[in-house]
């Protein structure tokens, strides 16, 4: 019973924070029936593959996964598991909400970046041209944006904005220089925006100006939609506005599957020490609840996280507190049950 969902503990701090997530989801009365599967370094050691067929089959069946961070071994020519998952399930939309929980340099930030996840300069069409004795005299990369891909991500962003009671979508591009690659993206996204003109405002920004505006006045933004490379960079920037990667959740969404994760990595420097902050993974879990049509449970979880993090005793070491990973989980569960 329950909605079948794949659970990937992952590497490093992954199993510790996933363990907290499972306990917290139980306390919340979550709708998910977990299917635990391996991926990452631990899977490589056990089964010789960073991304075993069983794990792929499970996600294919459930169409839903909550994923701990995975270590991609350096050297040995391994392709990133995260990129393989995106390609395997055509997870074309990367959604990164950034919301202030603990006020720092900025307060009351609440914005969402929607990044195209499959096209652009990240398609991996790269090569060198040798000249004279230098085999790498010229380095080349081809960026590929399709009309269909641009329309799909723009539609996703506008639909997301409507569904989540947002007011504005900002299209980010570099159409003044990359006239074809991002000019077409801008033109297509604006066309999509016309279909929503009765419900949403939209405007556009050149990416470099947008980066500056995000520092000077981030409150002017609401939902931002951009191409792969710009979206990658800006999504880390907006994570910085709300206190860094430790608080940042992400969703990778396709037509047939969606994978939810913390934005941070496996943090090998603190693994096994009870120092990891599970907030980002739990916030990803809240996005997953939203995704399956359980917004009330998602909000209950977010409210509980906010409340625990508002207390000194509820903060993990990365936030200057003394709570261990499991203690943070216990406090959250108390809050949810109380
Ligand atoms: P990282 O995000 O794992 O760690 C960067 C710093 O932030 C470290 O000092 C770490 O202790 C701290 N940190 C990260 N998450 C934290 C948390 N939840 N609580 C408290 N502190 C936290 O980035 P790094 O060190 O560059 O990468 C480590 C490994 O993770 C690499 O193998 C990398 O490939 C992988 N990685 C995986 C990702 C994924 O699966 N989505 C994303 C990013 C990196
Ligand atoms: Mg990135």
Automatic annotation (TrEMBL):
Residues 4-332 form the Isopropylmalate dehydrogenase-like domain. PROSITE patterns: IDH_IMDH. Keywords: Oxidoreductase. The keyword Oxidoreductase applies. It comes from the Bacteria. One of its GO terms (molecular function) is magnesium ion binding. SMART domains: Iso_dh. It holds the Pfam family Iso_dh. Gene3D superfamilies: Isopropylmalate Dehydrogenase (3.40.718.10). Coiled coil: none annotated. One of its GO terms (biological process) is tricarboxylic acid cycle. InterPro entries: IsoCit/isopropylmalate_DH_CS, IsoPropMal-DH-like_dom. SUPFAM superfamilies: Isocitrate/Isopropylmalate dehydrogenase-like. PANTHER family: DECARBOXYLATING DEHYDROGENASES-ISOCITRATE, ISOPROPYLMALATE, TARTRATE, ISOCITRATE DEHYDROGENASE [NAD] SUBUNIT ALPHA, MITOCHONDRIAL. Belongs to the isocitrate and isopropylmalate dehydrogenases family. This is Isocitrate dehydrogenase. It comes from Oxalicibacterium solurbis.
């Amino acid at each position: 019973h329950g909605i079948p969902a794949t659970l990937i503990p992952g590497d490093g701090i992954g199993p510790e924070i996933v363990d907290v997530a499972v306990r917290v989801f139980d306390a919340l009365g979550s709708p998910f029936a977990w299917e635990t599967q391996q991926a990452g370094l631990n899977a490589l050691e056990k089964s010789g593959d960073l991304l075993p067929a069983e794990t792929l089959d499970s996600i294919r069946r459930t169409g839903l996964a909550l994923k701990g961070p995975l270590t991609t071994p350096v050297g040995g020519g391994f392709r990133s598991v995260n990129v393989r998952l995106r390609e395997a399930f055509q997870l074309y939309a990367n959604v990164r909400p950034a919301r202030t929980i603990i006020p720092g340099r900025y307060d009351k930030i609440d914005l969402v970046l929607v990044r195209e996840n499959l096209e652009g300069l990240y398609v991996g069409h790269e090569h060198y041209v040798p000249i004279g004795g230098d085999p790498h005299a010229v380095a080349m990369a081809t960026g590929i944006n399709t009309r269909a891909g641009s329309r799909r991500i723009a539609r996703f962003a506008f639909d997301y904005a409507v569904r989540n009671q947002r007011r504005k979508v900002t299209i980010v591009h570099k159409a003044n220089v990359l006239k074809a690659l991002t000019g077409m993206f801008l033109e297509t996204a604006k066309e999509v925006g016309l279909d929503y003109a009765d419900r949403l405002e939209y405007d556009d920004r050149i990416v470099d100006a947008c980066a500056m505006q995000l520092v000077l006045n981030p409150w002017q933004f609401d939902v931002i939609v951009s191409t792969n490379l710009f979206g990658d960079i800006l999504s880390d920037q907006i994570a910085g506005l709300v206190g860094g990667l430790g608080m940042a959740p992400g969703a990778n969404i396709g037509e047939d599957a969606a994978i939810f994760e913390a934005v941070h990595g496996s943090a090998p420097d603190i693994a096994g020490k009870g120092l990891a902050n599970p907030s980002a993974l739990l916030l990803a879990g809240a996005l997953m609840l939203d995704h399956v049509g359980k917004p009330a449970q998602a909000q209950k979880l977010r409210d509980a996280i906010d409340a625990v993090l508002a207390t000194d005793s509820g903060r993990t070491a990365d936030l200057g507190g003394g709570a261990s990973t499991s203690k943070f989980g216990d406090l959250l569960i108390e809050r949810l049950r109380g």
